């Protein structure tokens, strides 16, 4: 003896129900994937800016604390920022540009130097994400202070 539920209707999904479910999943993916990619890029961008500012601020403070001149070097080919042995790798698809005093640069590296009395050689660091969002981080030569100015390339 066979038993059917629902007055003769077998259990399962109809083709229409499956197509509707697939369409809904497709729409959700079309909306969420670009948003997730933008979110990931935004996280990378903020982290890169934070690393640059932290490295520069740390160099200034260590120079004041230790009474020694300290250099922050920028390797534009490898997107690496270094303070002594501490190196920060920026994402490869980010553009990094540096304007520094020519007399402190060496070995193809851009250098921003911090002096024990709080001043610096000064300079600008431009960091641009693949989407054109970016920031100019300026190091004041007189006081060694940091400032940042965001920009968007249309």
Q: What does this entry look like structurally?
A:
This protein has 154 residues and is α+β, with helices and mostly antiparallel strands. The protein has 1 helix and 8 strands, in the order αββββββββ. It has one helix at 15-66; strands at 70-75, 80-83, 86-89, 95-100, 110-114, 123-128, 133-139, 146-152. It has a 4-stranded antiparallel beta sheet with strand order 3-2-1-5, covered by helices on one side. The model has no long low-confidence stretch (mean pLDDT 90).
Set down the secondary structure blueprint:
Blueprint: H1 15-66, E1 70-75, E2 80-83, E3 86-89, E4 95-100, E5 110-114, E6 123-128, E7 133-139, E8 146-152
The major sheet is characterized as: 4 strands, antiparallel
The overall strand count is 8
Just name the CATH architecture.
3-Layer(bab) Sandwich
Oligomer category: single chain
Helix content: 25-40%
> Which shape, going by the Cα principal axes?
elongated
List unreliable stretches of 5+ residues. none
The averaged pLDDT comes out at 90
The fraction of residues assigned to DSSP E strands is 25-35%
Under CATH, the topology can be stated as minor pseudopilin epsh fold
The CATH superfamily appears as minor pseudopilin epsh domain
Strand order of the largest sheet: 3-2-1-5
Pfam families: N_methyl
Transmembrane segments: 18-40
InterPro entries: N_methyl_site (IPR012902), Pilin-like (IPR045584)
Protein name: Type II secretion system protein
